[in-house]
Amino acid sequence: MASQPGPLTKVGTIVVPLLAVVVLVFTWGRDLPGPVVVLVALVLAGAVLSAVHHAEVVAHRVGEPFGSLVLAVAVTVIEVALIVTLMADGGAKTSSLARDTVFAAVMITANGIVGLALFVGAWRGGVAPFSTEGTVAAIATMATLATLSLVLPTFTTGKPGPEFTGAQLAFAAIVSLAVYGLFVAMQTVRHREYFLPVTRDGEVLDEDDHAHPPTNKETVISLVMLLVALVAVVGDTKTISPVIESGVEAAGLPQAFVGVVIALMVLLPETLAAHRSALRDRTQVSLNLAHGSAIASIGLTIPAIAVASIWMEGPLVLGLGPTHMVMLALTVVVSILTVVTGRATLLQGGLHLVLFASFVFLAISP
């Protein structure tokens, strides 16, 4: 995998995240005037680009599928911290924020990022090749976690409303961690070859390109700066979240749309990284990022929310409504039909992008 910084210079990929953190320190918990909001947005965009660069450097050093796992887990861990922080500060009005953000993350990754990667890959070469075994396993894991954590609460009767009882939530948390751990073990140890990039001739690539990997020092620096950049991305997103909330309210949009906007901003690094992998004919890497992020988002968020609910007051709404359940079911069906042949055309990429656009539209106009 190439480790070129793209729009930012190598110095910029270090300076910009540090600047974003400094801006975060001085703006945290304050009411921001318009010009400062613009400044935060600019350093946020720079931090996103820096995160992509450093993630690619680390990925080049450790190889696939570990490289895509690094970015997916790092983003998800900090995303979980953001959700818990917003829920702790927001009270009853944020009772469904975890559900809204996690479901938005699943739709963005499984439809938006996957659709973009398949469309770009097919546009460049006619078809976008990938591993059927690994991708089907990832979709099955994602569907299992989403159903157990986001669909079942709507139908359980132990507690009024789309909520789990304490025991049910604890069970869901344990199962989520177990399933996530099982998937990671399969992806990185037992069946690592299922998640490596493949060529259009079916050849498995055990390395991304012939360039020399970065040194240990460069890798450590990039790993540290990746974490700094991701902290800046999520922290600055939280800083401007009141502006997002007021904008959503002023536009007359549903409160759930806040979760969609937050998920879109937090997942920008993965979206750009997946797009760049697709441009290099590494569709499998893009799918690893997308599905891995969806799995991590559920598998790590539910346990974290379960622990946080011990001290957080108010209800915890996890169950999806009918519209979202239909969107989830359709996404799973289309995803399976997309990957059964191991090759996708523009049609499959377009279908996923249409599903993503439908999700966004229905979030605006439910």
Automatic annotation (TrEMBL):
- What is the superkingdom listed in this entry's lineage? Bacteria
Topology of the protein relative to the lipid bilayer: Multi-pass membrane protein
Where does the UniProt annotation locate this protein? Membrane
| UniProt key word Repeat | no
Question: Sodium/calcium exchanger membrane region domain location, by residue?
Answer: 37-188, 222-364
Q: Name one Pfam family in it.
A: Na_Ca_ex
Any transmembrane segments, and where?
12-29, 35-54, 66-87, 102-123, 135-155, 167-186, 220-244, 250-268, 289-311, 317-339, 346-364
Q: What is this protein called?
A: Ionic transporter y4hA
